[in-house]
Amino acid sequence: MRKYLVILCIAAQVLVLGVMAGERELILATGERIFLRTAPIDPRDPFRGDFVRLRYDISVVAAGKIRGGVRDHAKEKGYPVYAMLKKGTEDLYSVDYLTDEKPGEGIFLRGRLNRDWRLGRTGSGVAVSYGIEQLFVEQGSGKDIEKRRGARNSLQVPMEVEVAVGSGGTSVIRDFRWSRLGMSLKMLRFHRRDRNTNLDEVTEPLSPKLEITLQNVSDAPLFVVDPGNHCGFRMEPTARVSRQYSSVYDGCRNIQVSGLDLVELAPGEAYTVELDLTEPRWYMSVGGKTGEIGRYANNDSFRIVYQPAAVGITTPAEGMWKGELPSSAFTAFRVLD
Strand pairing partners for 134? Predict the structure, then answer.
């Protein structure tokens, strides 16, 4: 009798695996195809060959995009959620909002809340896993992928993963491509401090000076644009920040772009700017106070985002890079990733 029970259990497990495999194949064949931007990390699985662990832009969802009862279960690992997506430039999708109620229409991903020690503050975002956090690749190629992706203080080229999405939100990785534009961030200056530093007594600049480089990593010419007072860039808090920051500079509002603002980059060429965050151009408002992040941000993290100001541009679509590219995260005194 025990023998038959063992056989029955094994058969049931094989059946479940078969159903799961069948569902994945069906989604690959019929699912909606989308692209998600990700930054890979590369450990190796000795049993299944090389794989790249993936962390997506949508892996952390900001507090302002959370709906339904998700906030009440923010600390509950495994709690089921749905990420409603919206299409952006360069055919990339991002999170519109996160809910625990299954959407009735549109493109959405089914996921589960995960734990992230960097999200310890009440009111901050939440971490989500979607079952597409591992990409198996040809053995020996994982390190090459990680090298192309780049690392802290070097040129980083985002991997863009093609995902097939089923009607119920289940997602399966199909393939990947590379962004045509890469970015690097370096801190040229920062103020060392600790919790006992009295900022009112500091005479040197409190906020960092950054060097931002955009590089064409494609095999065709690209145009980038940076009009006015570096209006091709903006600074924003990361999804892990709980406090509400907003830029106070309005000099980029309704900026008009001329041909002189366009920079043509041949394959391999780069465009570099220096951004001094002590200048009013980069002042932020938070908690009723306004000023540079070096005075008010504490350990809050930010990114510089390149987003072309496309007003009045007549350059052919294939020549203008029209996406949105975030830098490494940084605080007022160090680079984080």
Answer: 53
